[in-house]
Amino acid sequence: MATSVLQPEDCRREHEPKPEITESPRLTEDERLQILEAKERETGELPSELRERARVELRENPALREQALAQMRHFIEKHPAIRKCRTDPPFLLRFLRTKKYSIPQACSMLERYLTIRQMYPQWFQKLDPLDPKVAAVIDAGYLVPLPKRDAEGRRVVLSCMGRFDPHLYDSCVMARVHSMIVELLLDEPRSQLLGYTHVNDEAGMQMPHVSLWSLSDVRIMLNCIQNSTPMRHKCTHFVNIPHYGVKFFEFAVSLLSEKLKDRVMFHRTSEELTKHVDPAILPKEYGGTVPLKDMVEELKRNLLKRREELLALDEMCVDLYALEKNDLTQDIHSTAGSFRKLELD
Fold first, then answer.
1. What residues form DSSP beta bridges with 317?
2. Cα(235)–Cα(276) distance, integer angstroms
3. Which end of the chain is more exposed for a tag (fewer CB within 10 A), N or C?
4. Terminal CA-to-CA distance of the chain, rounded, Å?
5. pTM listed for this prediction
6. Dihedral angle of Cα 182, 206, 264, 281, to the nearest 10 degrees
7. CA–CA gap between residue 339 and residue 345 (Å, rounded)
8. What's the rounded Cα separation, in Å, for the pair 101 and 211?
9. Dihedral through CA 344, CA 253, CA 136, CA 121, nearest 10?
10. pLDDT tens-digit profile, the chain (345 residues)
11. Which strand ranges, in their side-by-side order, compose the sheet holding 143-145?
12. Is 315 in contact with 84 (CB distance < 8 Å)?
């Protein structure tokens, strides 16, 4: 019978301790979801469990989606006023899903979106997370999208007025911070379908906060938010409003559409708020488990990761003068004129 002969080197190898096989750490559910959402964001595709809901609520199906994307790209290409615009699926789906695949309404909102960015650059351009003033406001925890979604699957955006210093920063800085966070979130397919919940904590609000905004600017900004920003605003909560801020918010809400008015809720205390928003998803300071500073750090990492995309938004361009003469379709009217009228009213 043949026997194998081990060489000295083989003997040594046999007696050497074998390296331990370590399993890669198992992903938590939150980490797995983050990876999935990052992939969805790149393609604009919804997860399989939400496609039926998109079909029922938005009429979305693969054939309609591709047809609608092609029509919007054609609209952009032939538009006499649009000089440059993103045409990737996640961007265009912002408008299609917000308008439930009504092509004329989606194109009209896109036109208005491009228009307000150009008419009010102090609010909607230079969304740089490394801008010293913007970075300071973010670092203070004034505005943060919560890592976990609410019970309806919506992205929750928390604002804390007391963390914004009205003596150091003006309304333009505040607007740019909001615009930057919004742009960070708008390409999320799940949010395009399920919408957003806003939680506004007005504790610490002072009279200088109220005087940051003129009534005219409030009107214009709310018009921009309602008619030109592709977000499905599902619920807005206000809590801890001081007595001298009540009239300001009453005025602001009066400018909203009836549909959005019905989605606004006022709460006297944080305890009252948590009857409607699960405290588990809120920062530790509001009854959750994750400190606000940790949420801010995660936000800063995400903003830096997307910084080039945020700055590249300023490359989009529309000719406001040509826009006034636009007659491509009856469903799209000049927004430049309507905004100028707002300023004169």
1. 84
2. 10
3. N
4. 105
5. 0.86
6. 60
7. 10
8. 40
9. -30
10. 444 444 555 555 555 555 555 555 688 877 788 888 889 899 999 999 999 999 999 999 999 999 999 999 999 999 999 999 999 999 999 999 999 999 999 999 999 999 999 999 999 999 999 999 999 999 999 999 999 999 999 999 999 999 999 999 999 999 999 999 999 999 999 999 999 999 999 999 999 999 999 999 999 999 999 999 999 999 999 999 999 899 999 999 999 999 999 999 999 998 999 999 999 999 999 999 999 999 999 999 999 999 999 999 999 999 988 877 554 333 333 344 444 443 333
11. 143-145, 155-160, 196-201, 233-239, 264-267
12. yes
**By the 8 A CB rule, do 274 and 199 touch?**
no
DSSP class of residue 164? S
**The token pair that represents 34 in the structure block:** 């983050």
DSSP string computed for 212-228: TS-HHHHHHHHHHHHHH
Residue 29: both structure tokens together: 């559910």
Cβ atoms < 10 Å from Cβ of 69: 17
| Structure-block tokens of residue 234 | 């599902």
Neighbours of 49 (CB within 10 A): 8
